[in-house]
Each structure stands twice: as structure tokens, then as C-alpha cells.
């Protein structure tokens, strides 16, 4: 009963999930690459043994991706592997943490080695990009495909970006276009199966803002990643920081492809409520804006100021026409708006 | 699509999985108890922030427990919660690591708050016993009940018990009776639903040998926990240590209730191949036997020497009658057996 998948589990792990370990080092030895990554003992024992960097905080997060709940089961295995790790790396990005190690728990309805090979390619492709080492895994046989990843990163003491640091008067900003992933999901369900389609790609292969988070963590007052949708995640930031917010609809960055696909109104709705964007939502003091923008532009990204943190609780929104939208009070101007950042 | 369970997720976590956090500390504050446990920032942000102990290694392991694969779906919620954490704590025990933190990913077919309450009681009951803090979680809605836990412990540099340390001439020993869990599983399927029945209890509520592992980690040469069954796990130890083993059947500790339930032959078979015991299998130099035994007895446990590590690969077994058994070569005496430990 306990070993539904164990006959092949060790071999599957050895074959697909020890790709960064030289074959000669797959028993008790640690490869030079692992040692540089702080891996004292990797896969194959009861636990991985890791060497945390002295004086830094360990950042840990877990996320489950379920087939046909968090991703379409018929997406490519590469995309599924990429996406499962990306949504976890985004949690490290949201704290400004440096990726270190992750463990993978995989539940498979069947052992399809072609699929596993593709999945591992997607996973390792992103893992190498962000220098995070797979140090442990568990494979079980179950009715539905489920991927649970626990990521570990580290961050300087007092260097972490948190949800409780936003202060009235701070600017609210995001690191990239919103709504595209939601547009991609809709396109997928409408039959668009080209994974290189810009919106589909935004949904299936999000690029977690890891380098951005690490580079600006000391310059912002608070933040998180946008996974549930801008309004929902802004709500989390406001609740934890005991503040409110005023959003400027016209300043929310939208991809041209999204506007072309959905029209302006639905594109804005996707940006507000769609989710799965994995951009960072940041609060920062106005005098930090230029410096943060410079850092992000040096990384090939951008800073889009979309509103202000207010002392009064609740989220209000203004459009260029003065109309409000769902969940929002219509008003003409954000309170305490002295013209900083993006005018609508 | 990404938020199948999110409407209630935050509230469920707050209600059931923040039990060690005072209500006043459930936003950005860390309770004194959390601070003592090295928790800098607990649940509610994108990551938990943790303070590893300087100079110690971090031990990390992940295990998934699936309904009707790893536990019977109709067991009590308390037992399911206990067992899911126990099998993970056992991996820390197997390394000699001190439990620190864990994260929980829970996939639920339905939100049954009565069940969640019981599950959390079982989980927290064992967590408090072993002083491990729940620092993060993810709840999703899926077709089958699945519990994935990632545990974190720490251990002194060079203090970890590993699978590659067994040396020829070492004694092989276990920390308690084997086969009982398998007997309990069989009793369960035969209709025995009393969770206090000694065999059923051994299966549903294993007691991970955490204190034992921590106390003897510097005194043994190698080891692991017995989850797949004595022969399978001994095989892992031998493979990683590049050694063989000779087992003495008569020395393998069996619970009286197991022998009474299955008879002597099937009880031995359950001990060899049944799995789910979560006792430790240890290798130790003969001159350490008395000291290890004393430590384990001081903890209320015992040391049962069941064989010897051999230079020759392969596992051989002897019975008191000289008969071999499946997977074993029959022989009269372990090689290099100078009478140390348990004679058959």
C-alpha cells in the first residue's frame, strides 16, 4: 500500500531528476557544482543536507499545481515543468530572496517517460536560469497529476520585501504588463494551442521576477507577486499593511496583444482580476522611484507606477473618464496625489 | 482557473493551521513562541522567513501521503494528520536532525471543516511533541485527498546519520519491533477499525524516532528509517555504503500481538517486507553497542542487534533452524560473526 509507485521511483528520480549531478556523484559524493550551491548531501538519502549562508534569513514557500486546476493538462510537458517551478520562484522574487534549493513532490496518474523527460527539461531549464538546485523529491502514483514544489531562498536580515511594509504616501508600481496570462488562458480555451503565442506564453511560461526582486529589495517598502490578480493581491498588501490604495486605471500596463484580443475594457478587467501574472506589485517611497526604475531598466524591465498608498482603508480607482469600476469608488483624483508617477 | 480553492483558502489556513500563533500575531507580528523557534516571519506572506542556527546543516525532506495509497481514506482525520507528519519527521530522525519547521500542501476533494479540525489536531499534536513549527501552507481543491509535507531540521556539521557510512564489521540494529504496522494494515482491511488496537495504532500513528536519532547520531556509522520494509531499506543502506549484510532472523524484534495475529512465519515476513515501521535501522561499530543501547534505554526505547555488515555484497539471512528465506541465501552463521550482539 505504501509503495504504489516505489518500484520505479528511485530509477525515475535517477533518470530525470538528478540532471545536475554527474553520474559518478550520484551516490554519496557531492559534485563540485553542488558544493558551490551549498549542497552537502543531495538526493538519495533520507534528507538533503544543505549549508545555509551565515547571517542570512531562509525564505521558504510551497505551492501545488494541479492539472486542470492550475494548468491545462494538455499543455506541453515542458511548459508544465516550467510553470510549476516559476510560480514558486515568484514567491522568492516577491520576498527579494536569492533562489537556493527546491524539492519536488510529483503525483503521476501513469509513468510516461516521454512526458517526464519533457517535464524535467522545462523544470531544469528554469532552475538553471535562476541557479536553484533540485535537492530532493518524491514520486507517487495517484489519480491526478499534481506537482508540489517547496522552494528555498535566502535574503539579508532586514532585506526581505514583505506585505506589511506599505506606508501612506508610497507609490504603487508593477514590474510589467498585467492581464496577459488571463488573456492567454482564454485563448487556450478558445483553441489557441501555439505555446509561442504571446498571450499563451505569458500564461504557460511566466518569467518570475527573481533578479528584479533581489536587486530592489532594499529600495522598496513592501510588495508581493501578482498571482491572484491585481485587485486581490493589492487587497492582501493593504490588509497586512493596514493601509488603503488608489489605483489609476490608465496607468496599468497592458500588452498590445491583450488589448487587440479582448478590447480595452476587457483587457483592463483581465489586468485587475485575471491573475497568474507573476509580476511584482511594489510600494515605494516617492524619492526611491527614479533609483528603482533605473535598476529595473538595467535588468531589461520597467517600473510602472499605477497608484498611491492611502491612509484611508479600501481600494479606490479612477479612470481617465472619471468612471469607477466594480469594487471601486469613482473619483477624480487619488488623495495625496501630488503628481508623482503616472498620471492617468 | 488558478483559484479553485482560494475563496476559502486564507480563512481555512487562519482557522486551522495557525494554531501556534496568537490571534494578535497573525498579521505581521511574530509571537514570542515563534521567535524562539527561529521564525522571523510566519504564514501570511509570500514566504516564511526563518533564522537557521549558525554553523549547522539544514536537513530537508519531502513526502506525499495519498488517500488509499499511503493511508486508508476512512481512518480518522486525527490519525491521517498525525501519520502524514510522522512519516516526514521520521526522515529527520533518520538523519539525526533536530526538527525545526515544516510546510504543508493539502489537496482536498471537499472542504469539510469537521475533518479539517481533526486533521489539524493530529498534525499539531505530533508537531508540538517534537517542537516543529508549521510556517507555511497551500490548500487546493482536487479530486483526491493528498498531503505533501516538507520538513526542515538541523544537525551539527559531520553529525548527520547517512546511508553511506556503514562499514564491514559494523553491527546492524533496529530501534523497535518490526512488522507491526503491516499487521495493523492487514487488520484494518479485515475490518478492525479500533484505532487503539496495538497493530492498527502502529500503522496509523507511528512514533518517529526523532529523539533517538538526535541522541545517537554521533555514535553510529550509518542508518536510515524503515519505511519500505527491512530488506528493502537494508538494501538501500548496503547499496549506498557498498557493503553487504547478514541478518539473524531470530533476533528481529516482533511484537507479541503481531505473532499472535499472523503466526511466527508471517510475522517474520511482515517484519522483513511489510514496511511502514518507521523504526531506525542503524550500523554501528561493535565497541559503540553498549553506549548506544544505554542512550536508547534512557529514552525509554531499546537497541536490537539483528545482524552484521559484511564486505561481500548482498544480503544473506539465517534462521534459528538454518533455513533461508526469500531473497536470502541460507547459511549457518554470519561471516565475521564473533558472537557480538544478538545470537539467533
TrEMBL record, chains A, B:
Residues annotated as binding Mg(2+) 4 = 46, 61, 91
Binding locations of Mg(2+) 3: 46, 91, 225
All residue ranges annotated as the PurM-like C-terminal domain in the record: 167-317
Reactions catalysed according to its record: thiamine phosphate + ATP = thiamine diphosphate + ADP
Annotated residues that bind Mg(2+) 1 are located at 63, 138
Q: Which residues form a coiled coil?
A: none
Which amino acid positions bind substrate, per UniProt?
70, 276, 325
Q: Among its keywords, does the record have Cytoplasm?
A: no
Pfam families (UniProt xref):
AIRS, AIRS_C
Which residue range or ranges hold the PurM-like N-terminal domain? 44-154
- Biological process terms in GO annotation: thiamine biosynthetic process; thiamine diphosphate biosynthetic process
Q: Name the PANTHER family on file.
A: THIAMINE-MONOPHOSPHATE KINASE (PTHR30270:SF0)
User: What's the name of the protein?
Assistant: Thiamine-monophosphate kinase
The gene is thiL
Amino acid at each position: 500500500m505504501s509503495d504504489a509507485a516505489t518500484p520505479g521511483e528511485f530509477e525515475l528520480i535517477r533518470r530525470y531528476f538528478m540532471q545536475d549531478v554527474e553520474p559518478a556523484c550520484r551516490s554519496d559524493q557531492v559534485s563540485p557544482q553542488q558544493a558551490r550551491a551549498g549542497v552537502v548531501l543531495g538526493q538519495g538519502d533520507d534528507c538533503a543536507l544543505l549549508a545555509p549562508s551565515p547571517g542570512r534569513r531562509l525564505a521558504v514557500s510551497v505551492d501545488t499545481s494541479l492539472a486542470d486546476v492550475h494548468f491545462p493538462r494538455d499543455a506541453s510537458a515542458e511548459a508544465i515543468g516550467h510553470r510549476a517551478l516559476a510560480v514558486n520562484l515568484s514567491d522568492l522574487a516577491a520576498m527579494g530572496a536569492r533562489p537556493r534549493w527546491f524539492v519536488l513532490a510529483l503525483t503521476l496518474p501513469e509513468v510516461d517517460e516521454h512526458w517526464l523527460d519533457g517535464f524535467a527539461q522545462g523544470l531544469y531549464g528554469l532552475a538553471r536560469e535562476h541557479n536553484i538546485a533540485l535537492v530532493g523529491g518524491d514520486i507517487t502514483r495517484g489519480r491526478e497529476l499534481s506537482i508540489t514544489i517547496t522552494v528555498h531562498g535566502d535574503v539579508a536580515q532586514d532585506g526581505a520585501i514583505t506585505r506589511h511594509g506599505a506606508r501612506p504616501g508610497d507609490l504603487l508600481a508593477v514590474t510589467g504588463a498585467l492581464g496577459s496570462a488571463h488573456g492567454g488562458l482564454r485563448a487556450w480555451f478558445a483553441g489557441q494551442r501555439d505555446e509561442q503565442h504571446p498571450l499563451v506564453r505569458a500564461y504557460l511560461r511566466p518569467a518570475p521576477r527573481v533578479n528584479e526582486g533581489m536587486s530592489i529589495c532594499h529600495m522598496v517598502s513592501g510588495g508581493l507577486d501578482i498571482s491572484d490578480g491585481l485587485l486581490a493581491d493589492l487587497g492582501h498588501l493593504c490588509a497586512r499593511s493596514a493601509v488603503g490604495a488608489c489605483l489609476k486605471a490608465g496607468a496599468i500596463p497592458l500588452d498590445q496583444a491583450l488589448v487587440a484580443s479582448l478590447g480595452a475594457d476587457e483587457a483592463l478587467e483581465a489586468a485587475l482580476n485575471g491573475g497568474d501574472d507573476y509580476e511584482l506589485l511594489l510600494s515605494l517611497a516617492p524619492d526611491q522611484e527614479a533609483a528603482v526604475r533605473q535598476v529595473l531598466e538595467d535588468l531589461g524591465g520597467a517600473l510602472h507606477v499605477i497608484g498611491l498608498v492611502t491612509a484611508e482603508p479600501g481600494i479606490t480607482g479612477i479612470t481617465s473618464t472619471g468612471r469607477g469600476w466594480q469594487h471601486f469608488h469613482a473619483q477624480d483624483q487619488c488623495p495625496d496625489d501630488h503628481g508623482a508617477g503616472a498620471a492617468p
